[in-house]
Specification:
This protein is α+β, with helices and mostly antiparallel strands and 130 residues long. Helix content is 28%, strand content 38%. It contains 2 helices and 3 strands, in the order H-E-E-E-H.
Length: 130
């Protein structure tokens, strides 16, 4: 869930978390919360994305980002919370490729990078608890 005005942030982060879990090898990710062993829930409470540096033509070269989320990972079978962080904080700085064409949506590219890094951070925090 995304309680912010961030465009496609929820979808990109969800897809990235699914990819990271699958890449870790032991996890099967399903879209519904039925007949599962564990459930990962997250609510994005804030996203701050703003340009940090600019090119000579006034386009952003680098973005700073801060994401705050509520994250809970629950063992459904034993009804036990395995990981919970009501204020999961992620910070990053992202450089945009200056060779991209002028009309390219640079903020969207930054969000793609952020989603991947945020997913790695969340999954690592959850798995370190085991």
């Amino acid at each position: 869930m995304n309680t912010t005005q961030g465009y496609e942030v929820e979808q990109k982060i969800t897809a990235s978390i699914q990819t990271v879990l699958i890449q870790r090898g032991k996890y099967k990710v399903v879209p519904e919360a039925q007949d599962v062993d564990a459930l990962l829930k997250g609510i994005i409470t804030s996203v701050s994305l703003y340009p940090a540096t600019f090119s000579s033509d006034g386009r952003a070269n680098e973005y700073n980002v801060v994401i705050n989320a509520k994250v809970t990972f629950t063992d459904v079978i034993n009804n036990k919370i395995l990981f919970q962080n009501p204020s999961f904080l992620f910070r990053g700085q992202y450089e945009i490729d200056p060779d991209q064409v002028a009309y390219f949506d640079r903020q969207s590219e930054a969000i793609d990078q952020i989603a991947r890094d945020f997913a790695e951070s969340v999954v690592s925090a959850i798995l370190e608890g085991f």
